[in-house]
Amino acid sequence: MQRYKLLRGLCAVACIFFSTIAFAAEYHGQVTFNGLPVPGAIVTVTRDSTKFVAVTDLQGNYTFADLASGPWKIQIEMTGFATSHADITVPAAATAVPWELKLLSLNEIRTATNAVKIVDKPAPVAATPQVAQQNNAAPKTSAPAPVPEKPSDENAQRAADGFLINGSVNNAATSQYALPSAFGNTRNGGKGLYTGGIYLVINNSALDARPFSLTGLNTARTPYDQANAGVSYGGPLKIPHLIPLYKAPYFFLNYQWTRNTNDSTVSALMPDSAERSGNLSELPQQIYNPSNGTPYGGNIVPVSSQAQALLAYYPLPNVTGSTGYNYQAPILSSTHQDNFMTRVDKSFGYKNQVYGLFAIQSVRSSNPNVFSFVDTSNILGINSNVNWNHEFSRQLFITIGYAYSRLQTQVHPYFENRINVSGQAGITGNDQDPADWAPPTLGFSSGIAGLSDTQSANNRNQTGALSASANYYRGRHNVTVGGDFRRQEFNYYQQQNPQGTFTFTGAATQKNNSGGSDLADFLIGIPDTSAIAYGNADKYFRESVYDAYIRDDWRLRPELTINAGLRWEYGAPITELFGRLVNLDIAQGFTTVAPVVASNPIGSLTGNHYPTSLIQPDKFGVEPRIGISWRPFSGSSVVVRGGYGLYQDTSIYQTTALNMAQQPPQPSPSKSLSVQNSSTCPLTLANGFVACSGTTLDTFAVDPNFHVGYAQAWQLQVQRDLPAALVMIATYSGVKGTHGVQEYLPNTYPIGATSPCPSCPVGFAYRTSNGESSREAGQVQLRRRLRSGFTASVQYTYSKSIDDDASLGGQGPVAAGAVSQSTASPAIAQNWQNLTAERGLSSFDQRNLLNVTMQYTTGMGLGGSTLLEGWKGRAYKEWTVMSSITAGSGMPETPTYYVAVPGTGVTGSMRGQTTGASVYAAPSGLFLNPAAYTAPSNGQWGNAGRNSITGPGQFAMNASLARTFRVKTRYNLDIRFDSTNVLNHVTYSSYFTTVASPQFGLPSSTSAMRSVQTTVRLRF
Fold first, then answer.
1. H and E: helices and strands count for the chain
2. What's phi and psi for 16, nearest 5 deg?
3. Domains of the chain by residue range
4. Residue range 2-190 in CATH 2.60.40.10
5. Spatial distance between the Cα atoms of 501 and 821, rounded to a whole number of angstroms
6. CA 778 to each of CA 69, 464, 485, 731, 798: distance values in angstroms, whole numbers, following the listed order
7. Residues 26-52: pLDDT tens digits?
8. CA 795 → CA 192, 593, 678, 845, distances in Å?
């Protein structure tokens, strides 16, 4: 019996011993990325309330010495990589378990970084973590104390939220990878948690070159000063005894202060003393009396009282002997600007983060023109947003945001509430509101300076936007799904063209298409055309914009990534709050038109029922997009990238709504017209804004089936590394635009021809969406990576862009009743029945473009004297010299014939007739040959192509010199000198291309000459 009891006891002890061996075992593995070991990764195993932590060694290995047998959960974390989770069973196989990490994208890294919390004074860890030694031998430790899943006290939670560095809680204090307590911005007592800076940018005329003079007159330079300053500060919003550091939100403040004045020199052609008295004897052509067709003796013409009153605002010439210009003066403008911005970021636990921004900007400026009319403007802008980010799991994040912006613009013209110019001159028919007192706009075909002033305005625009997106990461897929909604308000308080526009082309004082003078027409008071638009100054536009999208960043293979997505975007046509939009209901063939009002949108001619926007919505805004990145050869540096996308332009409705907002029938005294002087419609300066029979009172109409324009863009790029730290990138790109904006004048005909439909309505511009465009470009870039302190890039682009689009070509559709089209870039087609003739080079087409950038930093590399010591080293090292050079061919320009289109009040849409002479065979003193073009023959449109002249070539060289001085451990002083146009090279911006003008072939303006700017910034 005793033996039996003894044997049973021994068996029990043996079972306990062997069970202990069976239920406690070693577990080890290896962490890799692309087959390479990853040192410093955090490996955590948990079961119930028990947790162990280890850190991988230099070979990526980790070891847990005494894990109880059974199921465990393992988690592997590493900065910049996706966190891995898995279930394991102990004991495991003798072979080390491999774990392959997945690299995060840049956006994912930022999201993870924003979620990190830095605590003030972490409490001791409840459990002692196991830390793998470099020799892969686990330390002998006692059984760890249990760690509760949810700490009951605040200190335990703060410990769990500690900043993890290379693998263990509380800055790896127990591991060989521990960092000093002063790591980064962490300082005892909270010192060093805040960063900021102060900067000052100064510039004045002392170091700047004199502005270039087109007349050759050395005008005295007006002294000016520029000063920009700013301060920034950021860190945790810690309030003693109220908000402790570990609960404090993070904030950033920035304030910018700007006080700038700028000088420029303007050149113009002004009437001289003799011309002001009516003496035009110096003109070679004969001036004819429009009342009887007889010539004025000696070209002495009478001067109307209205012309005399307006001539008083023209300065007298101050330059003699200059071709094309006789007046030059300096202009000094000023800008005062204040910007304030603050950001706040607060995390709540592990899974929630709230961040937002508030910014406010105030700009006050004064802008004089060549007539010394000084207009002032005030701009006040507010921009704010708030966002909430929530983590459902390691794979799923959502972000919800709201943004609000508001912009108020006030413009005060020089004559506002000061002088009623039109009233004193005896000009009737325009707006007499004191806010809009100003001279009427005058335009001359010969190049005489056009009298004008800006319009009074008080506009308030605001946008409220909601956004939501979800990011899902699983396996090789990073999927983003989201959508946005914007409600936009455009509140205008301004007239469109309240004082009206007169243009003079010499048509009144010529006979049989010969002789005549635009200045003579003005002096006797007979304009060729007139246009005006005013009425209800207040306009309240509303627009809703929607979009939804899905995108997948698919890491198909290590050498192939595909980013594909689909986006739907819809911008509803703009409506007016009180239904005060007017379009034209048009019969087939433009034989008859009638106004249709948004408040009663039923066409009286066609019976069509229009929406309140008067434009049918275009909801088919599907935009597919795809991009690839592919490394075709293993071990090679060759990378191939390509992509395709479709992009819509939902911003085209605003200018259209502005044109429709101020047309009859509107409440009195609305007036909108564009007319031409004729025997049946006589115009004078005194009474030039009259509605003639056969002229449409509404000056603008739009196709009710107007489509939103879109562009298809594609690109293919090949990149390869070369010896000597060089990288070569070759790129081909293309863009195809569809449904671009086009404008034309229905029922018009060439000068000298007979109207094909005398009873058809004229005098209005019609906007459609039938334009097309295309651009293709090839680009080669050779870049030198930073090596021995030197980096550089040389990039050459060859491109060609063609369009028949009134907006894409940079022409900018002109509002109805506003100033006639610019002679350099007409927006309205010449021949409304042959729109294909508008196809030509885009106004931004630059065939050749070369960009060179260089940067050198002293004291880097052995060749840069990096080992230089003493005062020589301190004086020489750490200077950075940068320079950029841009050289390109000229932009296209159009040879415009400045004359009224018959039956309308529009000038500038006709083009000249080519003679066969080369436009570039210019005589001395000119850059273009005036003999290359002439006026179109009677009954014919001009055959010169749109944008068929190549403008002046472009060249610019800028340079800068900078250095950072380390004042103290945490204080740095940055000093920088920037110079634009450092060679003081004269570059013309464009040429005058008005056919038959004495200024044809002269440069119209120049780029800025050399200027120097100094920046001082203190950072801490």
1. 10, 49
2. -60, -40
3. 2-190
4. yes
5. 12
6. 65, 40, 37, 6, 5
7. 777 888 876 677 887 888 888 776 777
8. 43, 54, 56, 17
